[in-house]
UniProtKB/TrEMBL annotation:
<keyword id="KW-0812">Transmembrane</keyword>
<keyword id="KW-0808">Transferase</keyword>
<dbReference type="GO" id="GO:0004674">
    <property type="term" value="F:protein serine/threonine kinase activity"/>
</dbReference>
<keyword id="KW-0547">Nucleotide-binding</keyword>
<feature type="binding site">
    <location>
        <position position="381"/>
    </location>
    <ligand>
        <name>ATP</name>
    </ligand>
</feature>
<keyword id="KW-0418">Kinase</keyword>
<dbReference type="GO" id="GO:0005886">
    <property type="term" value="C:plasma membrane"/>
</dbReference>
<keyword id="KW-0732">Signal</keyword>
<feature type="domain" description="Protein kinase">
    <location>
        <begin position="353"/>
        <end position="628"/>
    </location>
</feature>
<keyword id="KW-1133">Transmembrane helix</keyword>
<protein>
    <submittedName>
        <fullName>LEAF RUST 10 DISEASE-RESISTANCEUS RECEPTOR-LIKE PROTEIN KINASE-like 1.1</fullName>
    </submittedName>
</protein>
<keyword id="KW-0723">Serine/threonine-protein kinase</keyword>
<dbReference type="InterPro" id="IPR000719">
    <property type="entry name" value="Prot_kinase_dom"/>
</dbReference>
<dbReference type="Pfam" id="PF00069">
    <property type="entry name" value="Pkinase"/>
</dbReference>
<dbReference type="GO" id="GO:0005524">
    <property type="term" value="F:ATP binding"/>
</dbReference>
<dbReference type="InterPro" id="IPR017441">
    <property type="entry name" value="Protein_kinase_ATP_BS"/>
</dbReference>
<keyword id="KW-0067">ATP-binding</keyword>
């Protein structure tokens, strides 16, 4: 499905005519979900030829050869000679697994034509087809376009529906696609409602199915013509395998490879191999001494163990423990210090996990409403898979929640045994849904979140996070869909599956990619290191959502403002608060709401700083929010604590207004200014 020379010239001609102008954001219509795994669907222009009408569309399964054995290092390039990041045309901040085609051995996905028009081209795997790389909207995703498929659609060629697409899956990287729709190729026609509107598979029982294909669609453009239903745009999500991640980002820094049998191996350069040989030599040299020392230690510990084993105090202690844990975990009452439920008990409580009981879907499982035999309403999380990774998240959430007690953290009632047929977690049932649902979801039309309620939500969430950090826990996935609200709109922070214990004797935690697009600390993608300031950044996005009622990621916004954090920063540095704050809050008729909302916006700005040292701690955030709520944040405190550090745009604005920067605390920055100064100067 590559591009011919004629098709490339046609795309370039469209670019010259302005039909591919990336700034035409009004032609873009996006759909995002709770975890941003919904498809990106875009409206086609009716006045222009249907070739790349928009630069931010969706993608579907592509046909790539499985010749992945060619992922090798022919030129011997390694991490030491490869650039950590680079830009190519409209794509910026590219890093592994991307690489320039001139240094294809530095990565897995090759990019070429950085200076070519209309867009650079990308090859997902060596030996595969080339596509136009339109944009990298957020991490681990890339938007592609295939002109050949577009030509088939615009020319109404039935061949467009005969393509059977599949994604390659190498031992180094895997690809998934979004926005796919099932099409049934049947042996007879039907005058019934078009299949696209049907949601129940039973509707097709009367028809003989020949085959099933998956294609990307835009259901809003469907007018009875299937060629107008399909879109030729691609959104690809990639994920490095654990082997490749540890190989490339490990201490020695290797390259990911596949041999002729498609088995993974990690290639290290000669220097690394030599260094490893030196270590092996040293290890062998000290091996004799070390072995003797270990033998002595083993003998000593065995002696200590035997001595303790037969001591009276040890016997009594063991007896007490056996009394506490006398029940088998499958039929007993405790596990990790929480009650254990049988699978059948929770299956009955959720009515066999009926789809009508679903409360929500997350990245790791589905949550169901249930009612226990004792009358308690509960929320039951059913993890998607029963494997080592899910077991780690299962145990991690139990371990963290059992050691924490806070009014604004969700309560864990119990779980199933780790040997149960499925991993199930049982929580208290919070009946008022999530904060995301009230801000920009199905409950947003109720307008139930007045400004005082939003301030309380911000304070209670900040208090819960400050408590977590004081308990050496990093949440790692702070977002509005993980903030539950009870009947009084009190906060319950939930979902600790990917949270991490943070010992107080370390400065950071190194970990593989985790979190939700739109909320992830940008520094995290540079070094994959977590600190408590990572939660502060995510909470800054939550604060912006509270004052704007906008989602964290919205494809309807300009390409540079798809992420709400970028959108808010652009508005705040220009002091355009009226374009950021939700007008339904009534700030136009209540100056107190306006003052508090702008103060919260400035606090959010501090939380969203790229430099982690500039961000406040959650304790400081909590104190500032309380001062804003009680109107104790006077102008002097606002200038010192919630001031806005200068950005390039703000410096130009200051020069145009001839406003002098105010001095600020040494702990933050050398220059500061506040929007109130610009406003007063202008007036």
């Amino acid at each position: 499905m590559g591009l011919t020379n004629e098709e490339e010239e046609e795309v370039a001609w469209k670019m010259g005519k302005g039909l591919l102008n990336p700034s035409w954001s009004e032609n873009v219509k996006g759909i995002t979900g709770v975890i941003f795994r919904q498809a990106l669907i875009f409206r086609k222009s009716s006045s222009a030829p249907k070739l790349l009408d928009s630069v931010e569309p969706a993608r579907y399964i592509v046909d790539l050869p499985l010749n992945i054995a060619s992922i090798s290092t022919a030129n011997g390039l390694t991490n030491s000679t490869c650039r950590k990041s680079f830009s190519c045309g409209n794509l910026t901040d590219l890093s592994f697994p991307f690489s320039l085609s001139t240094q294809s051995d530095c990565g897995i996905m090759s990019i070429s034509g950085c200076d070519a028009k209309p867009f650079p081209r990308i090859q997902l795997l060596p030996g595969g087809d080339w596509y136009y790389a339109l944009q990298k909207p957020f991490n681990y995703t890339v938007l592609l376009a295939d002109a050949k498929l577009n030509t088939m659609l615009t020319q109404h060629k039935c061949q467009a529906f005969n393509n059977k697409f599949s994604l390659p899956d190498s031992p180094s990287i895997s690809f998934t696609t979004l926005s796919l729709h099932n099409f049934f190729k049947c042996s007879s026609n039907s005058n019934n409602t078009p299949y696209i509107t049907q949601k129940m598979s039973a509707h097709f029982n009367d028809y003989e199915l020949f085959s099933l294909i998956k294609l990307p669609i835009d259901p809003r453009s469907y007018d009875g013509d299937l060629f107008n239903l399909l879109v030729p745009y691609f959104l690809v999500e990639w994920k490095l395998s654990d082997d490749c991640y540890h190989c490339h980002y490990g201490g020695d820094g290797g390259q990911c490879h596949a041999d002729k049998t498609n088995k993974f191996y990690c290639h290290k350069d000669a220097k690394t191999t030599k260094r490893r040989a030196v270590w092996l030599f040293l290890a062998a040299g000290f091996g004799g001494v070390g072995l003797a020392l270990i033998t002595c230690l083993v003998v000593y510990f065995i002696w200590c163990y035997q001595k303790r084993k037969f001591s009276p105090s040890r016997f009594l202690s063991t007896k007490k423990l056996s009394d506490i844990f006398k029940h088998d975990v499958e039929i007993g009452s405790i596990y990790f210090c929480v009650p254990v439920f049988s699978y059948s008990e929770l299956e009955e409580a959720t009515n066999d996990f009926n789809s009508s009981r679903v409360l929500g879907d997350g990245g790791f499982g589905t949550v169901y409403y249930g009612k226990l035999k004792d009358g308690r309403d509960v929320a039951v999380k059913r993890l998607y898979e029963h494997n080592c990774k899910r077991m780690e998240q299962f145990v991690n959430e139990i371990e963290i929640l059992t050691r924490l007690r806070h009014n604004n953290l969700v309560t864990l009632y119990g779980c199933t045994s780790s040997r149960s047929r499925e991993l199930l977690l049982v929580y208290e049932y919070i009946l008022n849904g999530t904060l995301a649902d009230h801000l920009h979801g199905q409950r947003a039309k109720q307008l139930s979140l007045a400004w005082p309620i939003r301030m309380n939500i911000a304070i209670e969430t900040a208090g819960a996070l400050a408590y977590l950090h004081a308990s050496d826990v990093i949440h790692c996935d702070v977002k509005t869909s993980n903030i539950l609200l009870d009947h009084n709109f009190s906060v319950k922070v939930a979902d600790f599956g990917i949270s991490r214990l943070f010992p107080n004797d370390v400065s950071h935690i190194s970990t593989a990619p985790r979190g939700t697009p739109g909320y992830i600390d940008p520094k995290y993608h540079e070094c994959y290191q977590l600190t408590s300031k990572s939660d502060v950044y995510s909470f800054g996005v939550v604060l912006v959502e509270l004052i704007s009622s906008m989602p964290a990621v919205d494809m309807n916004r300009h390409s540079q403002e798809i992420n709400l954090a970028n959108f808010a920063i652009n508005k705040i540095v220009k002091c355009a608060f009226n374009e950021l704050i939700d007008p339904s809050l009534g700030f136009d008729s209540d100056t107190k709401i306006w003052e508090m909302a702008t103060s919260v916006a400035e606090l959010a700005f501090l939380c969203l700083q790229t430099d982690r040292d500039v961000r406040p701690t959650m304790v400081e955030v909590l104190d500032i929010l309380k001062e804003i709520q009680t109107s104790e944040l006077d102008n002097e405190k606002r200038a010192k604590i919630v001031a806005v550090p200068p950005f390039p745009e703000s410096e130009n604005l200051l020069l145009s207004k001839q406003v002098k920067s105010l001095p600020s605390p040494n702990s933050l920055s050398d220059k500061w200014f506040t929007c109130s100064d610009i406003t007063s100067t202008t007036s």
